[in-house]
Each structure stands twice: as structure tokens, then as C-alpha cells.
């Protein structure tokens, strides 16, 4: 066994995790610790299938290769919140160029020296330099996490997770993660509770309230605007509003951009008027129908069709086209599973979004379709549809990428924040007592933000 961890240590950790599990008792905590126990199990060379609360399988004498995570298809962050049986194509990690190894080690060493001397700015830069050269370096990930933990425990917790994803035998990262994950879980839960309180306030606003109708109308335009702008559409909010209201074209803008707006608007109406009014599960056909509207005016031949070719999305290689149909079937099975329905709706909606963009069933329009599906799930649970602002594009994609390397929690957190922003905006617009501060979604110069981002 390559790990230096003794069997006693393992048992100690596993007993502790059971104790923690019983103290905190939540399903979500259970999932995470089931994942953590699995890491320990793997360290012991045992099997992966392992339930929380059961004892760990005894270590086998045969040693298991280091880098277990490389051939492990289920990672802690992925295991969390129903990602357990999710197929993950593990991409070969780019290997560090041998001539850079020395520089990485030196940067980490200097970072630690700077840290000891209280030169925090310098330490930050050096840690980042080391990780820019070698993003998979477990020691640097763990050390940077320890350095950040006091000021940003969420980020530290993510870094420990990444360290373990790269080296499942990293004892210090495991111990650190055991400590932070409990606190982080409490933070995440308290944010969801705050969101639910706001949602309850929002549900008290009478449906016929003029203010509410105006707010919803406004958010409808904002939604069409942001969800298309994020994909590179250059029409401004005002131009887009005018196209929807008057059906007239805007001079100097392409037909394609107009058609994206018309498609988005028709998809939103389909969701609002058809899918929202219907009971029952979401089917593959519903997803294709949403997409048929999103892309129907732009690319009628691809609209509503599963892609027939391989696509590449930055560093993410979605599943081959031959797998997509089956993956979609499994996806809708998951949508109606007890596991999915036991989740908090914000977590469920975020994961549904993540999984659909991961499969990437279409040639184009995957992001828009996934955001619509996410909103359908939220609306069915009594939450307003949310907006990912074009100005958040970078943060949004970064969170998705963190999901792709094995930690889905940052993405769920991001979607939770969007949900809270939307509730803040709607409550601000619809309640007399302005006990809520001016929300982020209002009074923002969207157009300026959109203009600063080059179209592609
Ligand atoms: C993983 O971390 C442990 C320390 O916890 C270390 O002994 C081992 O060499 C590391 N493995 C790799 C492949 O870096
Ligand atoms: C959404 O549906 C409701 C109820 O069916 C309807 O009153 C409202 O006008 C619809 N909104 C849009 C934008 O279609
Ligand atoms: Mg696109």
C-alpha cells in the first residue's frame, strides 16, 4: 500500500466520520462523508461501494496503485448531491513539463517562506504562480488552502478537495477537508435557508399585484437579454425589448441575432404556458421541444435534434454523439428520482443544469436550454426563474469547470447566489417596506457590461 497512513489512523478517521455523521445527521452531510469514507476505503485498497454507517472493508494485502483518483470514476465532489453514478469522462491531465518542476517547487517553497514572514500579498502571488504552472499539484493546492482558510473557507475547502482529487492519499488534505467540509456545509445550508425565507416572503405577494406583474415583465426581458448576451448576442436590452414588443427589426444587427431573441422568447412562453401548466415528469421530448424553440428560428434543421457529431467545449469533451440519447434517457430518469426530489430545489435545479450542459446534447443552444430547464425546475418549486447575468459569465463558466474537475459545490453555490439576487430584486420591486437594500439586479448598467465583453 502506497499510503503512509496506518490502518489505525484509517479506523480512527472512519469512526470520527460516523460520529460526525450522527451529530450532523443531514442527508447532504451523509453524501459527502460517504464520499470521504470512500477515499479512505480506496486508501485501504477496499472496494468503492460503501454506505455511510457501515464499517470499512478490511485492507487487502495487495497494494493499489498511487493516483487512485485517476482511475476512479467517482470523486468526492461529484459524489455529492446525486452525482454518484454520473458518468465522467476523465480527461488525461496535462503533465507538467519536467523542466518546470524545479520552478514549481521553488515557488511553493518561497510562498511558504513568505507566509511565515507574514508577507501575505507575496505569498498569494507565489501560490498562484505555482498552481498556474501545475494546477494539479496536490501539495500546492493543500498549502494554498491552508493559507486561505481563515479568510475564505469556501475556497480553501475547494482547494483541499482538488488536492484529494489529484492525490487520494494526501493525508493532510483529507484531514483539512474533514474539518472544513462540516463548516462549509453549514454555510451552504444557511444560505439555502435564507433563500427559502425570501421565497416565502415572495410567495406572499398577491399574484394580481400590479407591482408583481410589472416586475415579472421586466425580468422576462432581462432574462431574454442576459441568456442570449451570455452566448455572444450583441443586441442591447432596449433593442431586444423593442424586437419582442414591436416585431420590428433593429438596423445594423444581423438576422441571426434577431432570430435568437425570437427563439428565446418563444421558448420562455412554451415553458410558462405549456410546461408550467402541465403536471407530470419532464421528458426527453420536453427538453427537445424547448430546444426546438430556442434554435428554431436560427437553425431550423438542428432545432430539437440531438447532435450527430462530436463537439468540444473548451477543455471539456462532451460524450460521443452515439451516447447522447441514452444519457438523456438516464438524465430524465434522474430528474424524477427520489434522490433528486429529496434535494433542495436550488441544488436540484443547479445539478440538472450542470448535467445537461455536461451531456451537451445539441450542436448549439445547450447553455440556453439548460438554463431554461433549471428555471422550469425552480418555478415548479415556487421559486422565480433566475438570471445568470452576462457580467457573471466568467464566474459562471469557472464554476462549471470546477464541476468538471470533480467539485460541483461551487456551481450550486453560484446558482444559489443567482436565486437570492433574483428574490432580492423581486422583493425590492414588489414590497412597500423597503427593508431590502437596493438589489444587485436593479440599477445595474447591463448594457455597459455587455459592451465590454467582445462577441465571439
Ligand atoms: C500523495 O500524498 C502523500 C502524502 O500525504 C505522499 O506521500 C505521496 O507521495 C503523494 N503521492 C503522489 C503521487 O504525489
Ligand atoms: C405566463 O403564464 C401566466 C399564466 O398562464 C400568464 O398569465 C402570463 O401572461 C404568462 N407570461 C408570459 C410572458 O407568457
Ligand atoms: Mg452557443
List the helices and strands and how they pair.
Blueprint: H1 7-24, H2 27-43, H3 68-71, H4 76-79, H5 101-116, H6 120-133, H7 138-148, H8 153-166, H9 171-203, H10 210-229, H11 237-246, H12 255-275, H13 284-296, H14 321-335, H15 338-342, H16 345-359, H17 366-380, H18 393-405, H19 409-430, H20 446-452
This protein binds 2-acetamido-2-deoxy-beta-D-glucopyranose (2 copies) and magnesium ion (MG).
Pfam families: Fic
Transmembrane segments: 20-40
Binding site for ATP: 313-316, 364-371, 396-397, 404
Q: Any idea what the radius of gyration is? A: 24 Å
Q: How many H/I helical runs?
A: 20
Strand count, sense and closure of the main sheet?
none
The helical percent reads: 55-70%
Bound molecules: 2-acetamido-2-deoxy-beta-D-glucopyranose, magnesium ion
Low-confidence residue ranges: 1-92, 444-456
Structural class comes to mainly alpha
Give helix and strand order, one letter per element, not per position.
HHHHHHHHHHHHHHHHHHHH
Task: Give the number of DSSP strands.
Answer: 0
**Quaternary arrangement of the chains shown?**
single chain
Mean pLDDT: 78
The outline comes out as globular
End-to-end separation in angstroms reads 50 Å
Approximately what portion of the residues adopt beta-strand conformation? under 5%
Amino acid at each position: 500500500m502506497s499510503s503512509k497512513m496506518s490502518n489505525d489512523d484509517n479506523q480512527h478517521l472512519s469512526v470520527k466520520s460516523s460520529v460526525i455523521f450522527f451529530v450532523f445527521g443531514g442527508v447532504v452531510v451523509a453524501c459527502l462523508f460517504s464520499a470521504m469514507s470512500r477515499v479512505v476505503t480506496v486508501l485501504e485498497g477496499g472496494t468503492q461501494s460503501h454506505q455511510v454507517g457501515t464499517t470499512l472493508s478490511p485492507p487487502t494485502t495487495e497494494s493499489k496503485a498511487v493516483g487512485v483518483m485517476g482511475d476512479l470514476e467517482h470523486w468526492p465532489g461529484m459524489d455529492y448531491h446525486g452525482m454518484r453514478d454520473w458518468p465522467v469522462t476523465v480527461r488525461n491531465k496535462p503533465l507538467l513539463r519536467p523542466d518546470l518542476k524545479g520552478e514549481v517547487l521553488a515557488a511553493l517553497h518561497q510562498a511558504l517562506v513568505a507566509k511565515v514572514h507574514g508577507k501575505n500579498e507575496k505569498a498569494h502571488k507565489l501560490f498562484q504562480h505555482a498552481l498556474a504552472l501545475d494546477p494539479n499539484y496536490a501539495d500546492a493546492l493543500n498549502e494554498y488552502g491552508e493559507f486561505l482558510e481563515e479568510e475564505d473557507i469556501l475556497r480553501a475547502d475547494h482547494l483541499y478537495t482538488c488536492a484529494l482529487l489529484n492525490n487520494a492519499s494526501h493525508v493532510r488534505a483529507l484531514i483539512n477537508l474533514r474539518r472544513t467540509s462540516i463548516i462549509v456545509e453549514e454555510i451552504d445550508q444557511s444560505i439555502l435557508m435564507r433563500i427559502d425565507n425570501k421565497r416565502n416572503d415572495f410567495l406572499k405577494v398577491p399574484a394580481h399585484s400590479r407591482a408583481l406583474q410589472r416586475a415579472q415583465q421586466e425580468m422576462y426581458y432581462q432574462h431574454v437579454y442576459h441568456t442570449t448576451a451570455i452566448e455572444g448576442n450583441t443586441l442591447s436590452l432596449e433593442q431586444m425589448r423593442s424586437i419582442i414588443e414591436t416585431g420590428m427589426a433593429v438596423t445594423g444587427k444581423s438576422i441571426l441575432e434577431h432570430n435568437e431573441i425570437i427563439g428565446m422568447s418563444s421558448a420562455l412562453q412554451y415553458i410558462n404556458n405549456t410546461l408550467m401548466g402541465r403536471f407530470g415528469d419532464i421528458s426527453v421530448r420536453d427538453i427537445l421541444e424547448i430546444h426546438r424553440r430556442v434554435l428554431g428560428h436560427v437553425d431550423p434543421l438542428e432545432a430539437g435534434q440531438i447532435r450527430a457529431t462530436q463537439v468540444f467545449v473548451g477543455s471539456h469533451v462532451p460524450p460521443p454523439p452515439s451516447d447522447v440519447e441514452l444519457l438523456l434517457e438516464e438524465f430524465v430518469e434522474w430528474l424524477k428520482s427520489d434522490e433528486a426530489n429529496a434535494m433542495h430545489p436550488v441544488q436540484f435545479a443547479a445539478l440538472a443544469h450542470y448535467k445537461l450542459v455536461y451531456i451537451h446534447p445539441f450542436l448549439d443552444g445547450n447553455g440556453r436550454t439548460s438554463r431554461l430547464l433549471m428555471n422550469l425546475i425552480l418555478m415548479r418549486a415556487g421559486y422565480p426563474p433566475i438570471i445568470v447575468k452576462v457580467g457573471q459569465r466568467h464566474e459562471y463558466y469557472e464554476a462549471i469547470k470546477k464541476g468538471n474537475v470533480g467539485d460541483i459545490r461551487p456551481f450550486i453555490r453560484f446558482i444559489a447566489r443567482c436565486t437570492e439576487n433574483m428574490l432580492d430584486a423581486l422583493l425590492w420591486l414588489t414590497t412597500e417596506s423597503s427593508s431590502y437594500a437596493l438589489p444587485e439586479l436593479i440599477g445595474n448598467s447591463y448594457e455597459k457590461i455587455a459592451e465590454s465583453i467582445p462577441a465571439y
